[in-house]
Amino acid sequence: MGAIKYMKIDLRFLKVQKVVLILFPILAVFMEAFGKMDFAFVFGYLCFGAIIIAPTAFMYEQKGSDLFIAMLPGKLKDRVWGRFLNLIILMLGAFLCAMISHFIAEGFSFSISGMEAVFMLAAFCISIMIGSIQMLVFYKVGREKSQQWLAMFRLIPGFVVFFGITYASDALIKEPDLLKNLVGILQRQAVMLGGLLVVICIAVLLVCEMLSVKICSKKDGY
Amino acid sequence: MGDYALEVTNLTKKFSDFTLDDISFKLPKGYIMGFVGRNGAGKTTTINLITSLYHKDAGEVRIDGNRAEDDKVLYKESIGYIGDESYFHEAFKIKDIVSIQKDFYPTFREAQYMQYIEQWELPTDKKIGEFSKGMKVKLMFAGVLARDTRILLLDEATSGLDPITRDEVLVMLQKYIEDGERSVLFSTHILEDLEKIADYVFFIEKGGEVFCDYKDQIMEAYRMVKGGTDELTSELEKEIIGLQKSSVGFQGIVSREVGDTIGDKFLVEQPAINDIIVAFQKNMGGNHTWVQ
Question: Residues B203, B257: one domain?
């Protein structure tokens, strides 16, 4: 409950970026509907957007509003969890936008292949993991230094996800045999592989959160 | 529940270039303590340690008998903090602040908060970034006054305010302690504010205590001495704190005992608290300009 209160504050910070928040999904619809971009590309793009927007709260903490948050009667664990929840909410937002954009691009009907579903799950989990590691780096490096490195920290993980997903999907299309084999493996082991990925994703999220709490508990200002 | 609103005992914090060394004081309920010292003397560090924003290296802080280590949520709920800069996000509007305060403070009274907003004519449709400094300070006050707190900590909150707003703030502080259960610790550069409302004065310099006492007792313990330069003896010069000499005259602060013995030779009068602090500060070789 405490974490949700902090998450709501972080979501309020996003208001500053409302133009970006509106533009990202609109562009997604245009890319898929009119740009004939494939679904994988659009979802990768939305994951990229979610990852670069997620650390917004870190950016605004450096402008003095951290004191207001630090003075609020809450637990450090909740405060850190709130930020990770913010990442999850943004990722769920990206997922929802991708679905809506796909629905619109398909002429208000919805069809998704098993392969696409697996791909979405993989992209979702990898994005959460990269976003979590990004949060941990922010907490570790600290407010002052992270301000200097902000642009890099914000963009690199997003680019990794975006280009990684795009490259993987292109590579698979060019290699039909590899794709066939991969599809075969995925079809046979889909549940097991999907489950394993989700478990790894949750583990990375929890470890990053716990380490972030540990880092903050030793620092002044939290 | 303790007898004191705030108890600070042997508080110590070491940084690479500064040490807050063994600070102790007690602030009874229903009183205002002025916390004075130069920039970098340790005022903000002390306040940050009281708010538990910083980790202390040694010592203890209790607010109304409670320690942050025992229940940090309860401890923070009992503090009202106002800094010299607005700590609200500039893109926020008043409705955002209300929503956050409602979420976090169980004793937050929205109707009372909105009453202050209306009384001080704070715009509800504007972003906080568009507020003037005085408006931002009032907004911080509204948040603190509309919930139950035990102590109000002000870190240079009156600096940079116009005289009318400053006076309004001082009235708010007096009102805050009216029930005799709540207290105020305020750090300031403006010694006139100290004179007006402080009951206790803590003077800090280079991370250590210079003096801390009831304001009237401090004033009672010292005398302002004035005389002609040719009358100033080397013995008297040694006794004077913050000696100021010109070609015709001198003035400075002496202990009451010394003042009583030289009263027939020099002009000896009751100093204001400002005079005493400035004299001590000068004696320490500082060149800080106090606002009087």
Answer: no
